[in-house]
Amino acid sequence: MKLSADMLSFETIAQWFAALSEREQRIVQIGALLAPVLLVVGVLLPLDRSVAQAHERLVKKHNDLAWMEGVVPELAASPQPPSAAGESLLVIVDRSARESGLAGSLAGSEPAGPKGLSLRLQKAPFDALIAWLARLAQQNGIRVDSATIDSAGAPGLVNAAVVLHTG
To answer: pLDDT tens-digit profile of 87-109?
Structure first.
């Protein structure tokens, strides 16, 4: 069936509507009233809501960017961590472990990639271990890639396998 302008004229539609039973006419009238409501509720309101959320995210991202650009000079002026000054990761870890009282707990170490070090600690005080890892991150820019910590039997003592990375 081919649609033409004659088929969609007001007269044709009025004749079609008049030919319907009273019940069918009521259904068509209700449908004609509900169609715009469904369009507004089902399409336009969710679309408006998502546009508003996207605008809020954009404003937040602009604010974050402005803050980051403001912090750049401060970060550029801050001193580089010792690991960036040429000391090897092993030297930094060994020195800081001795300073933190964990030298006796270090059971072994081996390289873990170009800028990584895998460590094993046995019967290390948990609090000292966590404080040491936090100090490595804050003072030297060394991050913990992974850590497995298990109880060593005595309260407060742990065995740990830690993988550290610089940069």
So the answer is: 888 999 999 999 999 989 999 99
